[in-house]
Structure formats: C-alpha cells, structure tokens
Amino acid sequence: MAIPVVVGLDGSEVGFAAVDWAAGEALRHGLPLRLVHVTTGERDASALIDAATERVRRCVPTVPLTSEVLHADPATALIGQGHDAFALVLGSRGLGDLDAMLLGSVGLAVAARAECPVVVVRGAAEHRESRFGSVVVGVENGEGSGTAVPFAFREAQVRHCGLVVVHAWTAPIDAHATARAPSWALEAHRRPPAQVLDDALRGLTERYGDVRVTRRVVEGPARRELLGAASAADLLIVGAPRRHGHPGLQLGLIGHAMLHHAPCPVAVVPRT
Fold first, then answer.
1. Which CATH number describes the domain made up of 5-121?
2. Which residue, 267, 264, 183, is CA-closest to 228?
3. In whole angstroms, what is the distance from residue 222 CA to residue 218 CA?
4. pLDDT tens track of the chain, all 272 residues?
5. Taking the complete model, does pTM exceed 0.90, yes or no?
6. 34, 146, 261, 267: most buried by Cβ count inside 10 Å?
7. What CA–CA distances, in Å, run from 83 to 5, 34, 118, 122?
C-alpha cells in the first residue's frame, strides 16, 4: 500500500484547515490519508475523529482514509508517524490554552526533526485553497536544497501550476560584485549565485518538462525575498539540512522565519 499523507488533529479551526489541505494533497498525489490525534490525557477523541472523517468524506470521497488515536508524547508520536509518510501536515497554531501552547511547540519540534516533509498550513483561504497557481522554492548555496527542489517540481506538476525558484544572495558592504561574477575575496571560493541556481535545476527542467519555471536570482536577504515571493503562492518550500553533531535536528534561521511568518502553507523538506 502507498505511504500516506498524515495530518495531525488538534480540534482547532486551523487544525481542520490542515485536514482540508492534507485531503487535497492526498487526492493530488493519489495517496491514502491518515488522521492522527495525539493526546497525553484521557480525553474522548472519538468526536474529533468523527468530525474530521466526515469532513474528508464530504470533500474527497475517493481518498482511502484511516484514523488513529495515540496516547503518547505528542512530538515523539508525530515524528514516529513520519517514518512511513509522504508528508506530515499540521495546523499553524492550536486552541489558545495551555494545551495549544504545547501543540505549537510540538509542531515546531516535528518540523525540525521529522524524516519526511512537514507542511505547516498557514495563511488565508486564498493561499490554502490554491488560488494563485504558483509554488515557490528557496535554493541555498549548500546541501539543504537537494531534496526540496525535486519535491517542489513534483508539487508544481501535480497542481498543474508554475514553479518559482528563488536564490537570494548578499555581498559584503562596499564589495563590487554581480550575480554572475562575485569578486570579493571572501567569497572567491564559492559558486557564483547564478551557478547555484543552475546546479539546483540541472536535470529537473528536462524531467519535468511540463512545469513552467521562473528563475529568480536576487541580491538581498533570503528571508525578505522568500516572503515576498510567497505573497502570491499556494505553497512555499524550503530545505532543511541536517546539522553535524545533532542527528535529526534541522531548521535554520530561514526555516524558522518561514514557519512563523509565511503568508501561505510552508513545506520543510529534510535533506535525505
């Protein structure tokens, strides 16, 4: 059986928005959907599971659906679900009480440690419901984008939409440089910014020939440029390289910023 899209339930309005998004993702990719509610107490979860199940059946009746209630540490349980998942989908915040604060921190921990892509569903309905026809992926000068870019191409292909590939670069103050030819001594050992983008796209534009690609090599802070591009996007994708000495720990400053401030759903794709 195909690996599922897994969505975490918390009973909040944004949690149900995550269910809607996950159901659409499962339909697009032809995958089953698994509803998971994790609790540390004895709270009756049947009503929550029933409500989410009815919601999915109403919107995407053909998607194979399973559900599970886990009594465990939330972060550990959800990360465990990611061992055998196409993606983990979470809402952007919880219910607003002490438990919700825990769920918020759990969501961040899951995005930082899961072995599969983690999608945090953010933004207004126009972003969550794919009204823009655009997927954005950030490319960095390093290994972190190696899995994120192919993931972005697949998302654009199944959505039949355009893909915007962004690489933002900065030079030291007063340095004379261009995107094609950085000339400052400190950066001489690095690839020119345009080459970073060329390398990230090599082979993918041919493999996904039906995906319309827009390339953006821009001088400026990556945070600003990605948030700007995401303002007209249905999904923003960033990579998450593993840090040496911290197995499983991911998310740099850019990943954190996107999870907290992006105007659209954000997918964090770990390096594999």
1. 3.40.50.620
2. 264
3. 9
4. 689 999 999 888 889 999 999 999 999 999 999 999 998 766 678 899 999 999 999 999 999 999 999 988 888 999 999 999 999 999 986 433 334 443 467 788 899 899 999 999 999 999 999 999 999 999 988 665 789 999 999 999 999 999 999 999 887 665 555 655 555 444 444 678 899 999 999 999 999 999 999 999 999 999 999 999 999 999 999 998 765 555 545 677 888 889 989 999 999 999 87
5. no
6. 267
7. 12, 13, 12, 24
Delimit the domains of the chain by residue range: 5-121, 126-270
CATH code of 126-270, in short, is 3.40.50.620
List 28's β-bridge partners, or say none.
none
142, 241 in Cβ contact below 8 A?
yes
Total residue length of the chain: 272
3-state secondary structure the chain: CCCCEEEEECCCHHHHHHHHHHHHHHHHHCCCEEEEEEECCCCCCHHHHHHHHHHHHHHCCCCCEEEEEEECCHHHHHHHHHHHCCEEEEECCCCCCHHHHHHHHHHHHHHHHCCCCEEEECCCHHHHCCCCCEEEEECCCCCCCCCHHHHHHHHHHHHCCEEEEEEEECCCCCCCECCCCECCHHHCCCCCHHHHHHHHHCCHHHHCCCCCEEEEEEECCHHHHHHHHHCCCCEEEEEECCCCCCCCCCCCHHHHHHHHHCCCCEEEEECC
Nearest to 134 by CA among 265, 223, 18: 265
User: Cα Rg for the chain, rounded, in angstroms?
Assistant: 19
